[in-house]
Specification:
CATH topology of the largest domain: TIM Barrel
Shape: globular
Number of strands: 16
Radius of gyration: 20 Å
Length: 376
């Protein structure tokens, strides 16, 4: 049991980093993938299952949990960990991205953002201080600053305005967060696709001496090469002794290439959302189980997988469940996908420890390129 939040860099291989975040509720092995538990549930999964796939930490969403069941209620019920039966670390995002993307009506100014709930149209106000207050009521272990996340492309002047305000909001969030032993607040580097603005944001946040740093405002529709360019731009300006979190990313290929550039943490709805829509991630690449080629194929998704959903159920059965819109189909494919993501991260960590990350990356990409097994 560790009483303080601490990041330890254990090994580097090129720019790839193997580390550990230790805190009272447990250790996060990095590079880490955080399954998204938006409203206190990783969709279509039991949290015991999520843990068994290898997850050290999950993500909760401040915006959604604020609307229901409400942070004060969660606080009265003992906090999010107690409510959902997950005693391990939880990271909560600030809610800023959802306010920008889901709210049909919003008014944004220096104080914060006033918006209409996408559920019932009720008006709410989210300030930097209120975002931190909500995350405190949820009792999350890693809390994110409130920021303004713009969709790309956007005008440089607008990107600069949002970035500057996000820095000021980070300062207010730091004051509101105060000193919480064993917990951390992360800042979020903004600046869109403008390298100079990204550097300015990173340097301003670094001066605040926060416990961790995220790169936000990517995976919002820009090409992969732009995302990777922004990582290359930002990382040299972030402290090497603190964790780096790329928000909302991504595909297995995104994660491999980002680890190669020094990223430590990821989250994304892709493995869970894809699973509910019939798409499986495997070491041979993506498999659309809806395709007719699987209808009479009694072979598993992957006979070598550590996951029972991939190893013990036939493609024919998975195909039938998905085509029949049975809930079990989405559950099994989500289980497969989260297991694949965690197995990938485990392989990444091991390869960095052994000083062979570049080889692991090449071997993994070669398997994806070969594609799925041939139809019977």
């Amino acid at each position: 049991m560790h009483s303080e939040f601490k990041f330890t860099l254990l090994k580097t291989d090129g720019k790839a980093r193997r580390g550990e975040i230790t805190m009272p509720r447990g250790t996060i092995r990095t590079p880490a993938f955080m399954p998204v538990g938006t409203v206190g549930t990783v969709k279509a999964m039991y949290l015991d299952q999520v843990r068994d796939t290898g997850a050290d930490v999950i993500l909760g969403n401040t915006y959604h949990l604020m609307l229901r069941p409400g942070p004060e209620r969660v606080g009265r019920l003992g906090g999010l960990h107690e409510l959902i039966r997950w005693p391990h670390p939880i990271l909560t995002d600030s809610g800023g991205f959802q306010v920008m993307s889901l709210s049909g009506l919003r008014k944004l100014d220096e104080k914060g953002v006033t918006f209409k709930s996408h559920l019932d149209g009720a008006l709410h106000h989210m300030s930097p201080e209120r975002s931190i207050e909500i995350q405190g009521l949820l009792d999350s272990d890693i809390q994110m600053q409130l920021d303004e996340c713009l969709a790309l492309p956007a005008e440089p002047k607008e990107i600069e305005r949002a970035m500057e305000m996000s820095v000021r909001w980070a300062e207010r969030c730091k004051v509101a967060f105060g000193n919480q032993p064993g917990k951390a607040m992360f800042g979020i580097v903004q600046g869109g696709d403008q390298p100079a603005l990204r550097v300015k944001s990173a340097e301003a946040l670094k001066a605040l001496d926060l416990k961790g740093y995220a790169i936000g405002g990517l995976a919002v529709g820009e090409p992969q090469h732009v995302m990777l360019e922004m990582i290359d731009t930002v990382n040299p300006h972030l402290p090497t002794e603190k964790p780096r979190y790329l928000m909302g990313v991504g595909t297995p290929d995104d994660m491999l290439k980002s680890v190669a550039r020094g990223i430590d943490m990821f989250d994304c709805v892709m493995p869970t959302r894809s699973g509910r829509h019939g798409l499986a991630f495997t070491r041979r690449g993506k498999v659309n189980i809806r395709n007719a080629r699987h209808a009479e194929d009694m072979r598993p998704l992957d006979e070598e997988s550590s996951c029972p959903a991939a190893r013990d159920y036939s493609r024919a059965y998975l195909h039938h469940l998905v085509r029949a819109n049975e809930a079990l189909g989405g559950m099994l494919l989500t289980w497969n996908n989260l297991s694949y993501y965690q197995d990938l991260m485990s392989g990444i960590r091991k390869s960095i420890e052994e000083g062979r990350f570049a080889d692991f990356m090449a071997e993994t990409q070669e398997m994806w390129a070969k594609g799925d097994i041939d139809p019977i």
